[in-house]
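Quick one, T. Sequence first:
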Amino acid sequence: MDLPELLVEYDRALAYTDDLWRDLSVDEVHWRPHPESSAIGWHLGHQPAVAHFMVRNLTAAEPPIDAALDRLMDSATAERARGDLPGLDRIRRYRDDVADRVRHWVGTIDRGDVGAPAQLRFIAETMMISIINHEYQHSKWVGEVRSEQFGHALPDAPTGDALATIDGYVVIGANRP
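C-alpha cells:
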C-alpha cells in the first residue's frame, strides 16, 4: 500500500476507536476494575502516544505534543500509576493533535519534501502499518470493556481489502506480498 492509502486506513482505524468511546461517560472511560489494570482512557491516550513517538523518532524529530501525557500513557508506566487520567476533552484533543502530526509528516514524506525521500517513504510505510495495527490492538481491548463491563453494543468491525482478522484482532498488512 502506498502512503495515501495507508492514511485512509489510519483514518478508518481512528474512526473505529472513536465509535467505541465517544458515547461513553467520563466514569466509564476512567473505570478500572483494580489498580493493576488500565482504563479505557489510558488506552485512548496510549495509542496516540505511541504513534507520535514513532513519528517523531523515526521520521520527524519534533518535540512532544504533551510531555505529561506521553509519560502517563507510556507502556513503561506501571499499571498502578495509570489511574490519574485527564478529562475527556484533553484525551480527545491529544488524539486529534497526534493524528494531525501523523498526517502532516506522512504527507510531507509522500510529497518527497524530506532528505532521503525513498528511504523515508519505506520507513513511513512500515511505520504506518505498525501505527494502524497498534490502534486496532488497543481498540479491541476498549471494545471488550465497553461491551463486557458496561453492556454497550459494539459497532461493526471495520472491513476492507487490506484488512484481516488475526486472533480476533483487526490488522492491516497481513495479506501483503
